[in-house]
Amino acid sequence: MAVKLFGCVCDQFHSPGAGLGMAGDRVSVPVPFYVIEHPSGVAVFDCGLHADMMQADDPYRRRLRSQEMDVSLAPEETVTRSLERLDIDPAAVRFAVLSHLHFDHAGGLNELPNATIVVQAREWAAGSDDELAARYFLPRRFFDLGHQVRQVDGEHDLFGDGSVTLLPSYGHTPGHQSLQVRTEAGDYILTADACYNCRTAETREFPAHFDGPAMNRSLDALLARRGPDTLVIYGHDPDQWGERALLSSSRG
Prior knowledge:
Residues 30-236 form the Metallo-beta-lactamase domain. InterPro entries: MBL_superfamily_lactonases (IPR051013), Metallo-B-lactamas (IPR001279), RibonucZ/Hydroxyglut_hydro (IPR036866). This is N-acyl homoserine lactonase family protein. It is a single chain. The chain is of the alpha/beta class. Helices cover 23% and strands 29% of the residues. It is built from nine helices and twelve strands. A seven-stranded mixed β-sheet has the order 4-1-2-3-5-6-7. The N and C termini lie close together (10 Å).
């Protein structure tokens, strides 16, 4: 079986445009996650929103609204339903690779009971430290659920064959990571929140509350890996996702 990559959308995040480096008082952007079918098992890269976010009175949604943000999540947009549409049992997912521990990237972990979390060691350390977790908005409610955790340090070959490579891309959070996936028809670099959208990749106008110099270095390193057949997919770019899905099937 060739390596296959699928892109899924776990509904939307709503925010002032400036918070995402976008024009407009209010913007709505996709909350994507990715499914990788490999001969050695299924991996996901990020896992979207927690299903409790469907409820308007969810405590974290109330916190978001107090900061002029919000999310929307429909029953058909949960991690479980997206996997089921791909004929994948959520209980069979082997790896949950987390770009970082924010609520919209780690929220669906509770739907993947048997997955091993794969995360940068410095990100896990930040999430386990009360002060850093508060500073970087890393709520343990979403990721500290008793899963097995594989902490890696820097670049990491997930399956040992070069097809799926974790790439450190620090700056958005202390241990943010991105992912490169190689298929027969082309390569993908999934930046996650190392860069929200194509415009930011061009302007380098990162929101002020992140480590801009570190994000610039990380993005330079990611873009330097591009080849002629590489597609760079940014973290929350509505232009790349169109109606709902950028990748509905594999290229390889």
